């Protein structure tokens, strides 16, 4: 069993709020779950996206740069993350006083990956993020009713402004992870929009990252199948196949739908029991289940921290098992 220990001094005293000081924080990273599914490796010439690794070497990875939404965000937004401390009734591990939190009850998958590899993590993901605000009527700055969100455009822009000051970003030692689509599907279903624009922006941003040295790119396919995100993922796969050929870019494609379908079909084989989703809402832990360690989701639609561990393990399995020459 591994237990990480950290001592936290006097935390923070505001005028009326003074947190208890000088207590040890024990972060129990023991998980009762096991990864009970193997990747389904495909071929580089596949017309549709398929699980593959064209040359990413995790042993060489010293830095991870992450882009995405609440499934990937640790609340850092390009800075140093706060530790995953729970402050009930807030269900989101991290800060007590601002939104620098995780949509889960512990580490998120890309932190687990970084911890496993002892790599530095630069995380630009943010909750609710989409690919391109201008793609959807509900988020378009061109639409007077639109409410823009963080998008892949903004995340890339922030990384390009400050990432090089935070790390040497040695191409062969840096892994870029990208996971978008679920919120795009959500916004599209609400108010319509333009998948061609979203797709082009996704590929443009990959190109911009490549132009700035990205040689190793890991993509997450969405955990549920929807026709538009599937088509997007086919385009991303096909673009990265060309990248491999033209630019020598190594890429891995991890299909989370395969993992989550396997979990849904046979949760007990992974060690899950009880409620598939622990909490009743995203805003409070009150009324939640008593078995978060064996729940698939913690907040509705958001994996529990132990499921995040499986996502990390599954991503590693794809990279290790699906390597093509
Ligand atoms: C850590 O978690 C495991 C699995 O849930 C549990 O068996 C163990 O007792 C926990 N250890 C501590 C120190 O809380
Ligand atoms: C991919 O290549 C294999 C041989 O390596 C071939 O058998 C297969 O038909 C090809 N598939 C496509 C879609 O081109
Ligand atoms: C992967 O990286 C490690 C560490 O740099 C290196 O020792 C190993 O040879 C690399 N493997 C391949 C297949 O390049
Ligand atoms: C992330 O940080 C950048 C730069 O400080 C800031 O402009 C942006 O608003 C932040 N995003 C969020 C969602 O806080
Ligand atoms: C603005 O968005 C709404 C849906 O949120 C849509 O019905 C309307 O057509 C959009 N207007 C324009 C000018 O795109
Ligand atoms: C949404 O945006 C598209 C263009 O991006 C437009 O054609 C459409 O009319 C808009 N409104 C709805 C409700 O889809
Ligand atoms: C390939 O992707 C297209 C578009 O998403 C889809 O219609 C088709 O069923 C997929 N084919 C296979 C074999 O999955
Ligand atoms: C190749 O890399 C350049 C940047 O150096 C990028 O703009 C372009 O999109 C890449 N093309 C492919 C097919 O990967």
UniProtKB/TrEMBL annotation:
Protein name according to UniProt: SGNH hydrolase-type esterase domain-containing protein
Can you tell which superkingdom this protein's organism belongs to?
Eukaryota
Question: Which GO molecular function, any one, fits this protein according to its record?
Answer: hydrolase activity, acting on ester bonds
Task: Give the keywords, sorted.
Answer: Signal
Gene3D superfamilies on file: SGNH hydrolase (3.40.50.1110)
Which residues belong to the signal peptide in this entry? 1-20
Q: Which Pfam families match?
A: Lipase_GDSL (PF00657)
Natural source organism: Crucibulum laeve
